[in-house]
Design brief:
The longest helix has 17 residues, at 95-111. This protein has helices spanning 11-20, 51-63, 95-111, 136-148, and strands at 2-8, 28-30, 37-45, 68-78, 86-93, 125-130, 154-158, 160-167, 174-182. The chain has 185 residues and is an alpha+beta fold. It contains four helices and nine strands.
């Protein structure tokens, strides 16, 4: 199973986040509203037998964090210079709590001997990925469009994190929540 742990977004906030990026921007593979989330840890292919350990790591990390408010207020791209690969929304409020969750998950996943992408967390909400075959003109258009975006703050109260299964297909990813864990300090 291909797994990740994330902060899910309520449908109304996901729809509003999806609408931030104009449809006219070329060369993008937009993340559909139902798939928008803030990734805390990406495990990738994980044996189904390890699912209880993954849920346990999520529970351990969530136990140390109180529910919090998360606010997205700006758009950006990775990398900041050169050919963009990802268009994202950044956080005005709640970033410290997201980082605490990410650090707790990394620690718990390591202690459980689970494989995951063990790299520094860069909290963001991915709106779109830039196609690999993008032209130089499209690259400039994407970069200019991202710089011009105005984001009306989107706020959400976060009280749970989720263990999510990702199934890849030619039509895009399909996500299924396998476990939900409440935040409790």
């Amino acid at each position: 199973m291909r797994l990740f742990i994330a902060i899910p977004l309520p449908p109304d906030i996901a729809q509003r986040a999806f609408a931030v990026l104009p449809q006219a921007v070329p060369a993008l593979r937009r993340v559909q509203p139902e798939n928008l989330h803030v990734t805390l840890a990406f495990l990738g292919e994980t044996p189904e037998s390890r699912l209880p350990d993954v849920a346990g790591a999520a529970l351990e990390a969530a136990t140390g964090v109180r529910p919090f408010r998360l606010a997205f207020d700006r758009a950006g791209r990775f990398p900041e210079r050169g050919r963009p690969r990802v268009v994202w929304l950044g956080m005005a409020e709640g970033r410290a709590s997201v980082e605490r969750l990410g650090a707790g998950l990394s620690r718990a996943l390591r202690e459980s001997a689970l494989d995951f992408e063990d790299r520094p967390l860069s909290p963001h909400l991915t709106l779109a990925r830039v196609r690999e075959d993008v032209t130089p003109t499209e690259t400039r258009t994407v970069a200019t469009a991202v710089e011009a975006l105005t984001v009306v703050p989107l706020e959400v109260d976060v009280s749970t994190i989720a263990v999510v299964r990702s199934v890849l297909s030619p039509k895009g990813s399909r996500y299924t929540t396998l476990a939900t864990v409440p935040l409790t300090a």
